[in-house]
Amino acid sequence: MSDTILETTGLTREFRGFVAVNGVDLKVRTGTIHALIGPNGAGKTTCFNMLTKFLQPTRGGIHLKGRDITGLKPAAVARLGLVRSFQISAVFAHLTALQNVRLALQRRRGGSFDFWRSERVLDRYNGRALDLLDDVGLRAFAEVPAGQLAYGRKRALEIATTLALDPEVMLLDEPTAGMTHADVDRTVALIRRIRRGRTILMVEHNLSVVEGLCDTITVLTRGRVLAEGDYAAVSRNPDVVAAYLGSADGG
Ligand SMILES: Nc1ncnc2c1ncn2[C@@H]1O[C@H](COP(=O)(O)OP(=O)(O)OP(=O)(O)O)[C@@H](O)[C@H]1O
Ligand SMILES: [Mg+2]
């Protein structure tokens, strides 16, 4: 049980009678990279939204480090160490990469009103912010406005602003979506670097990324868990081949 950092039991979400997530039992082990895969509409993002409390479950429970977080607000869950990577829209285009990370570090300290204070206050965060940019391979882009970064680098910046919150459990929703081959490789290397001391749960459509990176894979279809295991086991599972790969071929 102490091995499990994040657990759902019977997690269910209905939208006006339509059951998008249906009795999902998920156990994410501490220190692992765990993938949630499945065809379009399987309920992956809805699961993520419930884990980060952007959506309230219709039924079922969520435990983080043994603590019931089912009724908590998103900010409270983030403070407990479960953080979802922000969407690009949360990166301020007119601010430099460095300024974006500094702002995230400052938010973590809860000093949102410091925003209006002098540059000197923000300079306190420079060292840590540069370290984080280094971690995601953006050190050379520190002074570039975020809006001018290439797509893959914007996503890396988004990960840096998430890392600024020092999450114990990090949720990544399709971290390589829309990326070029080179950016996918860079992102895989980045996830390998940042996994140290963390647990990562990710939704990912690119199966070679999943194969190379993830310890455990849970396959969802129509809101239910179809299979779970390592990549070798899951990819051999005939139900998975039929339901997941079959539909992937079709679309
Ligand atoms: N707010 C909502 N209201 C009504 N139906 C919803 C809502 N959000 C999701 N759904 C439905 O729930 C199902 C699961 O959606 P979800 O976005 O979780 O799938 P997904 O696995 O993330 O798919 P994708 O791979 O396309 O991102 C879909 O049928 C979707 O249309
Ligand atoms: Mg989705």
Overview of this structure, please?
The protein has 10 helices and 10 strands. It is α/β, with parallel strands linked by helices and 251 residues long. The protein folds into 2 domains: 1-81 and 170-177 and 198-251, Rossmann fold (3-Layer(aba) Sandwich), CATH 3.40.50.300; 90-166, no CATH class. A 6-stranded mixed β-sheet has the order 6-7-8-3-9-10, sandwiched between helices. The chain has a 4-stranded antiparallel β-sheet with strand order 2-1-4-5, covered by helices on one side. Strand 4 and strand 5 form a beta hairpin. The chain is globular. It starts with a strand and ends with a helix. Residues 15, 18, 20, 38, 40-46 line the site of adenosine-5'-triphosphate.
In total, the number of strands is: 10
Mean pLDDT: 89
Provide the number of structural domains: 2
Strand order of the largest sheet: 6-7-8-3-9-10
- The CATH topology label of the largest domain is Rossmann fold
- Give the end-to-end Cα distance, rounded to a whole number of Å: 39 Å
Unreliable runs: none
- Share in helix: 25-40%
Can you list the ligands bound to this structure? adenosine-5'-triphosphate, magnesium ion
At the fourth level of CATH, the homologous superfamily of the largest domain is P-loop containing nucleotide triphosphate hydrolases
β content, as a range? 15-25%
